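Hi Q.,

Before the meeting this afternoon, I wanted you to have the S-adenosylmethionine prediction in hand. No need to reply - just skim if you have a minute. The sequence and ligand are here:
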Amino acid sequence: MELWYTEKQTESYGITAKVKETYVHEQTDFQQLAMIETEEFGTMLVLDGMVMTTDKDEFVYHEMVAHPALNTHPNPEQVLVVGGGDGGVVREILKHEKVKRVVLVDIDGKVIEYSKKYLPNIASGLDDARVEVHVNDGFMHIHDHKNEYDVIMVDSTEPVGPAANLFTRGFYQGIYEALKEDGLFVAQTDNPWFKADLIQSVNRDVKEVFPVVRVFWANVPTYPSGLWTFTMGSKQHDPLAVDETAIPERETKYYTPRLHKAAFVLPKFVEDLVK
Ligand code: SAM
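Predicted structure with the ligand bound:
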């Protein structure tokens, strides 16, 4: 008998993948967690029925959360990741030699535990000496830390359940205060096909808090519509002012110095959303 996993991306549309094996399917204190083996994408982490990451395409999202932000800040020593318990963003951050300390704050310890067990290539950086892992609400952490971080990365689930308040103006204000005077942040901000309203409201809120706001995108096949956006808010440094010829080549599969500014060129219908 064939078993297929389907993510309902809207009430009338979804994507589906053939399942070879189910390793974990449980309700944690915060969300429904599944770790499944698919034929096409390898091991897949699913939270509350939404694909979080897969072995095959994880590199796109994790590289694009980490590298555009770190290559925009001239001296990113102290970095915070909110969410990101699978460890993929941390793995990419550790490729930057200037980074001295990475703090990861995920609300759900089970994501961290199962990612280490079933997604070892993604979670590989979590035990690095530069990394501190905290199981806590990112909203609380942000509000308890002032003027501490150079770069903050928000690698959260969608704005439902535990992540609902990570997409609010109050959260962006907290991020502003947790950053040092030339700090910047980046957040995953969903897709323009089914979540145009979210992209618009995040853009409006971030613009009320940060003087420099830029949106960029990447192609992530297992995320709804495949076209994923990220929003960067910065106190000073502009990703579009970076001299990309000075960015060192690092071991990546999606991001390159050539792509740094190109990723900020938006399709017209997305440009219109964030004008
Ligand atoms: N890349 C994924 C995506 O965009 O679909 C998200 C990655 S997944 C690792 C996101 C993580 O955010 C989950 O591990 C979840 O536990 C965590 N999370 C959700 N709400 C949170 C909160 N309030 N504070 C900290 N972490 C949170």
